[in-house]
Write a structure and sequence with these properties.
The structure is a single chain. The protein is α/β, with parallel strands linked by helices and about 260 residues long. The protein has 2 domains: about 210 residues, Rossmann fold; about 35 residues, no CATH class. The protein is built from 8 helices and 7 strands; from the N terminus they run βαβαβαβαβαβαααβ. Strands 3-2-1-4-5-6-7 form a 7-stranded parallel sheet, with helices on both faces. α4 runs parallel beside α5 and α6 packs across α7. The chain is globular and about 55 Å long. GO terms for molecular function: 3-oxoacyl-[acyl-carrier-protein] reductase (NADPH) activity. InterPro entries: NAD(P)-bd_dom_sf, SDR, SDR_fam. It is an enzyme of class 1 (oxidoreductase). Keywords: Oxidoreductase. Belongs to the short-chain dehydrogenases/reductases (SDR) family.
Amino acid sequence: MDLGISGKRALVLAASRGLGLGIAKALAAEGVHVLICGRTEEKLKANVEAIKASGGKADYVVADLADAHFVDQMLHAVHDKLGGIDILVNNTGGPTPGTAEEMDAEKLYTFFQSMVVRVITLTNALAPLMKTQGFGRILTVASSGVFEPIPNLALSNTLRGALVGWNKTLSAELASYGVTANMILPGRIHTDRIDELDGANAKKQGKSLDDVRAASVKSIPAQRLGRVEEFAASAAFLCSEPASYITGTMLRVDGGAAKSI
């Protein structure tokens, strides 16, 4: 299928590794000029070189979602390196594991700024450009925890859940302009983040990492962890021309793990 986005321009947040990087690679493979951001220049530079070596077009900017100047920095980078914007992929790192009772005001405020405020503010700044040109794709990466809370990830369940109502509201406001706004919800996709979370759960439960991982896989109907590449392919489709009538939705990519309908 021709996704119809060759020549488009995309900003992918938190793309130095994992899901963000996977999405950037998938878009670049479709002919999209991707601008990736992250905190580690060495990783970003290597990622851009790898994308270019595969025939793609990419640039990077070193930036931290926790920085108060993040949005202004992204706006300048979009103008200077892309010359505009067609696709925005809102991706953020996950907060520290923990229970609901372990959340305190400082943690809530800190992660709320980087995971919610920056995402909404940046989107609001870039959406008018998409409206003017009559095309835009806004894709926000969240988590399966927004509809089935994940144990020991209370902060993530809370903050990512806050984006659900925002995305649905935004999608209705932008739909008549040819701009879509969707969310993609990863289940157990094998990334460094999953390894870190499994390690934290193993320590908390007093079990081995292998035992924790085996129990996790057993709970997934597909009987395996997802691959970054297949998750990224789903994300790329939601950013495509053929997906122009899909907006305000949440796509679960979880191997059937969710128990809800």
